[in-house]
């Protein structure tokens, strides 16, 4: 009985130690790769693509990152290729012993391609990371992007093309 109790205690300590290793720490880097989907606020037009990112943790909970997205879109019956380059700041809140990490933040970048005039983009984002082991996680993120065509000299129409939802699901590595 004592041996079985010690075995259970050792297993619990091992599981807690493994989960604790999954927590992000100051100085950690992460690489991500995701599938991307987006639609306008009226859900009439869409885009699909890929997103790659790199992030650095300034503290155990604050991450700065850079991202590049390439996408194919259908807009008003025609197709186009677009890209965006963005920076992001995210606050992470570890749950379930660090295996589940919801995050909130914002992004700021530049959208370019065939769909709209080159534009500054910005907006809020939220998501969750789930660590499958101490260095690998799967994640989902939702962004609401606002395009600032006025900043670049063209007039903003206030139409659904000036805003979009972006959905990502992917995999990441922590090192």
- Order of SSEs, N→C? HEEEEEEEE
Number of domains: 1
Mean pLDDT: 82
* The CATH C-level class name: Mainly Beta
Structural category is mainly beta
| Tally of DSSP β-strands | 8
Helix content: 10-25%
The radius of gyration computed from the alpha-carbon positions, rounded to a whole number of angstroms, is 20 Å
Low-confidence segments, given as residue ranges, are 8-21, 152-160
Tally of separate helices: 1
DSSP strand (E) fraction?
over 45%
Question: Which word captures the global form?
Answer: elongated
Describe the protein in words:
The protein has one domain: Beta Barrel (Porin). With 175 residues, the protein is mostly beta strands. The chain has an eight-stranded antiparallel β-barrel. It is 11% helix and 60% strand. The chain has one helix and eight strands.
Map the helices and strands.
Layout (H helix, E strand, L loop, with lengths): L1 H20 L7 E12 L5 E12 L4 E14 L2 E15 L7 E14 L5 E13 L4 E13 L14 E12 L1
Antiparallel strand pairs: 1-2, 1-8, 2-3, 3-4, 4-5, 5-6, 6-7, 7-8
